[in-house]
Amino acid sequence: MYLSTVSRPATDPPTGGRPRRRLAGVGGTVLALGTVSLITDVSAEMVTAVLPLYLVLGLNLSPLAFGVLDGVYTGATAVLRVVGGFVADRFRRRKLVAGAGYALSAVAKLGLLLAGRSVPAIGAVLAVDRLGKGIRTAPRDALITLATPPDALGRAFGVHRAMDGVGAFLGPLVAFAVLLAVGPNYDAVFVASFCVAALAVVVLVLFVRERPAPVGPAGGADERRVTVREAAGLLRDRPARRLVLAAALLGLATIGDGFVYLLLQRREDVGLRWFPLLAVGTSLAYLLLAGPLGALADRIGRLPVVVGGYVALGGTYLLLAGPVHGWPLLVLTLALYGLFYAATDGVLIALAGPVLPARVRTTGIALVQTGQALAYLVSSVLFGLAWQVWGPRAAGGVAALAVAVALLVSVFLLAPLTRRSSR
């Protein structure tokens, strides 16, 4: 087991000789990062909640064109996740790299104002925003894994993702309030989003503490710098390859949030002003379930929880392709979609963390996330094409089938890692 030669404290270092109080069994580092994610998600979800309407109804993009932009929004800069992860591991500056990513995403919100109605410019700005997310995500998650004992990783990620979910819940509400106050003025949403994102960077700088470097076998700090060869060696490691391949397959079976909400809006004729509130339903389910499901993953195993999450995703796509209408469709779809995120978002990384060597854990997490993001880019384009050629219901049915196939293969790949990740 990779962690057998790595010794680290189970909790945040004591202050003044007394243990730091913790909420829900997690340390101050997790809570501080959760606060940063909460504020950042308010900013991000303000934009995400109005972006599908802005692009499809405001700029009259086709489903295929929206799929390309949606894929760019998440996957186009995915390779830079690995670069960010490697830099954080090599220089042991995970907080600094994560902070640069948060700052870049904040600046991108102002870029939407300058892009105007130019689709190429909007695509470029969205790519910059995702570049920031790509740089920050792996260092942030590595900070969590290094500040938490392996047997509590599910709870730690659950608490972090629950706080993140609070931001995702509030973001669309803030966007709705802005649109209610000023009318269909998307620029006002973008400016407010930038201000909130800037606050998150301030909180990160002031309150997040980075753990010391991992301790070597002899008891002293391991001063060796991570090399490119050492990082590349992860791809020769069988457990790491299984993680990356499974993540890519699951990403290939996942379509974007924007597509889900557009399908609901078209089927139920949801008013444009009320559209941002669809994301609120998903976020509420996520917020309520992320913590409990993270704790459940620590108790019964992370893989069963991840499997349950993707079953919920397949059910979401089937509902969108099926005969159900009215409020039952809205409630069931948003609840299942929130359950999917709560069961998979942090739990998959909690499964992966203990399997990866501590010295290159940030790089390993970045590889897993890159596999998902690149696959997501492909899936968004393919779903947009399927919608345009076959229609939305047929495309939803194909998406549900893809989830079933990807899940079966992924269980085969991840099952041998379950015992390792749960130790």
Question: Which descriptors would you attach to this protein?
Answer:
17 helices, disordered N terminus, 423 residues, mainly alpha, Growth Hormone, Chain: A, 75% helix
Strand-helix topology:
Elements (H helix, E strand, L loop, with lengths): L27 H31 L4 H13 L3 H13 L2 H22 L3 H28 L6 H30 L3 H22 L20 H5 L5 H15 L4 H12 L7 H25 L1 H20 L4 H19 L2 H6 L8 H30 L1 H23 L3 H4 L2
Helix pairs in contact: 1-5, 1-6, 1-7, 1-10, 1-11, 2-5, 2-15, 3-4, 3-5, 3-15, 4-5, 4-7, 5-15, 6-11, 9-15, 9-16, 11-12, 11-13, 12-13, 12-16, 15-16
In short:
It comes from Micromonospora maritima. By secondary structure, this protein is mostly helical.
Describe the structure.
The chain is mainly alpha-helical. It has one domain: Up-down Bundle (Growth Hormone, Chain: A), CATH 1.20.1250.20. Helix content is 75%, strand content 0%. The chain has 17 helices and no strands. It has helices at 28-58, 63-75, 79-91, 94-115, 119-146, 153-182, 186-207, 228-232, 238-252, 257-268, 276-300, 302-321, 326-344, 347-352, 361-390, 392-414, 418-421. Helix 3 (79-91) runs antiparallel to helix 15 and helix 4 (94-115) packs antiparallel against helix 5. The longest helix has 31 residues, at 28-58. The model is unreliable at 1-24 and 215-221 (pLDDT under 50).
